[in-house]
Amino acid sequence: MAKINENFEKLPGSYLFAEIARRTEAFQEANPDADIIKLGIGDVTRPLVSAVREAMHEAIDEQASSDTFKGYGPYEGYAFLREAIAEHDYASRGMDIEPDEIFVSDGAKSDCGNIGDILSVDNTIAVCDPVYPVYVDSNAIEGRAGEYDVDAEEWTRIHYMPTTAENGFCPALPSGDVDVIYLCSPNNPTGTVLTSEQLKAWVDYANAHDALIMFDAAYERFITEPDIPHSIFEVEGAKTCAIEFRSFSKTAGFTGMRCGYAVIPKALVRQGQSLNELWMRRQSTKFNGASYIIQKGAAAIYTPEGAKQVEASLDYYRQNAKVIKEGLESAGLEVYGAVNSPYVWCKTPHAMGSWDFFNKLLEEAQVVTTPGAGFGPAGEGYIRLTAFGDADQTREAVERIKRIL
Amino acid sequence: MAKINENFEKLPGSYLFAEIARRTEAFQEANPDADIIKLGIGDVTRPLVSAVREAMHEAIDEQASSDTFKGYGPYEGYAFLREAIAEHDYASRGMDIEPDEIFVSDGAKSDCGNIGDILSVDNTIAVCDPVYPVYVDSNAIEGRAGEYDVDAEEWTRIHYMPTTAENGFCPALPSGDVDVIYLCSPNNPTGTVLTSEQLKAWVDYANAHDALIMFDAAYERFITEPDIPHSIFEVEGAKTCAIEFRSFSKTAGFTGMRCGYAVIPKALVRQGQSLNELWMRRQSTKFNGASYIIQKGAAAIYTPEGAKQVEASLDYYRQNAKVIKEGLESAGLEVYGAVNSPYVWCKTPHAMGSWDFFNKLLEEAQVVTTPGAGFGPAGEGYIRLTAFGDADQTREAVERIKRIL
């Protein structure tokens, strides 16, 4: 008799975005004329830049002839892309990352979800609270989370690290031993960043405990402050304790194209095994490389023209983030993130609950946000707004919120 | 201390194609003027058809404007593609498969490798011998294979089913209980197919034992004989016991584009759980959909023009398969496959070993093949040739082989 993976039965429903959609639809139905503006979704909206489109058109034209046709590509991605990444994302900031420490994939979500394949079930996982749900759910499926406690909204075997205004959005180092630590900077959902000093403390902890840091840098392109690290490998010692995940999704509007990469240094060894080699074996067994067309598009963002175009798109979103932050602050709200991130993390006024403030903004301003409680218990009392919308609509949404507060 | 997945240490090296490359290079170095023809690789070489290229060009152009820009797509694939698949690959052959039973992915290898995520480690796996290595290696990584016995070239917990000329390339039903059975028809590497009657016996076995059949139909488009099932769902009862994997790789030359799909019927339930729902949860947790551009390209093969063009490409390969089969037979060799498959499975003459015959063909005819022993112990005494090469080169290779035998 075939037996299923019983860990799936333990997963709580993922109701957050479904519940947001349900409430939004219900409001729209009751108020057919309401002009609802959505600032809740973490998806990009700007067009793909022309350098990327042209590179993909060329890549397709190559497929018209046997001489230039591309079949199976390297499991780890084409050298042209890995070399561009090594040069522009690492060497340019003084980091020595080799192309064979870079693994191109169909996206950072796949990498974050699949990385557990090379780890034992017998690891204690630490995550920030609030948190991007993929880290937790993928570990839960693989049996590292224990049981889900509905009342606490926590898994019994996961070590949660509250990450709130009270601790400056830098989680405290764990008192007990943890084996695998997920960090995300710029953070989703809080939009806050970790400084070099804060990251150094984590790197030192991980090296001292032979722990692993899973560092999610999907939003690094939104960093505007000069001293904030874009990569954990800017921190001394990280090569012996960290894996970094990067994505073209937010960098270059690739959410629908699908491309990202993981960096696994050759110096990263646990129990005598090279994690770089383990991941190569995992990828060659269960993955057949990212699409050639998409890899050519991704490589185009590293050309001078492509880089300039991508920066212009990013500036559009950065300006939205600024508009949201300044607008909400001028209305007297306590606002975090936004400066180095497309996410704005806003404390609810008068200690309102996340969902209550969500309802108020929907009903009175016709603006859709994301209740912070949806990202974990420590997200209660916050809402998340995103800078990925249309600029005019974003300004309008902020004006409406200011009027009702 | 972070602990790695110790199952990786048990994996034997995957030396087959590396060893073929090593021997080929050594021969070329010793014989710089030798004109080597490669018929060993299972990768396509024909251009992408124009209908596919045009659809992808259009999809890229859509990304130039915010109005038509595509961000995150559905985890399970766009409805336009799933509906085309349901109609053209299933309804057209009398099968009732709903679009929400179809999950589009970045390829059948990913699906075959990842499907284990929804199954318990506590399942006994059965595979054909010889076998496509992904089924075995992915289960080994997940802990379902036991230990690797170097002398037997077998894993202790895997149930191997010899699939040879002696049993007409249809494995015998297991005597003991097995839980998950991998079948592949048209088969890689043997090129042989299972008939409706043979598949019915497996479906009945699986339903009687609450087992699961993982049915790999990546090569179904190569079937030319009218009575051979293209899908396991042509067999009564399959919806309660089977998952089917399909790919655009060989159908439409997508090995470098990356697109495939899995069919998981809603009627497929084990331990009270819907496997369709489990897979949707797996995909939504660890995957973010296949690239929009590539899905548009895949959908183009279901248009009248696209279908015609794809058939022409397939005919090119089918003709190669025929040339290889007839040529080798005329040289007195015992040949299987080819009729419904791009693979030709050839018994070595005079009971030669696979590698000995490989060496003979390389050294005397300058033709590269794949030794059958590389696919499992029961592949010893065979070699695999593929029909994916250039037509002129394929004819030339066959003439050379005929001359040296």
User: What is the terminal separation of chain A in angstroms?
Assistant: 60 Å
Number of strands of chain A: 17
The helical percent of chain A reads 25-40%
Give the strand order, joined by hyphens, for the main sheet of chain A. Answer: 2-10-9-8-7-3-6
Structural class computed from helices and strand pairing of chain A:
alpha/beta
Largest sheet of chain A: 7 strands, mixed
Mean pLDDT of chain A comes to 97
Please characterize this protein's 3D structure.
The structure is a homodimer of 405-residue chains. In chain A, helix 3 runs antiparallel to helix 10 (292-299). In chain A, 38% of the residues lie in helices and 15% in strands. In chain A, the strands form five sheets. Chain A has a seven-stranded mixed β-sheet, sandwiched between helices. Chain A is globular and about 60 Å long. The mean pLDDT of chain A is 97. The first copy, chain A, has 13 helices and 17 strands. Chain A has 405 residues and is an alpha/beta fold. Chain A starts with 6 loop residues before the first helix and ends with a helix. Chain A has helices at residues 7-10, 16-30, 50-62, 79-90, 108-114, 133-141, 196-209, 248-252, 275-286, 292-299, 304-330, 354-365, 391-404, and strands at residues 37-38, 102-105, 125-129, 148-149, 154-155, 159-162, 180-184, 212-216, 242-247, 260-263, 269-270, 273-274, 335-337, 343-347, 367-368, 370-371, 382-386. Chains A and B meet through helix 3, helix 5, helix 6, helix 9 and helix 10 of A and helix 3, helix 5, helix 6, helix 9 and helix 10 of B.
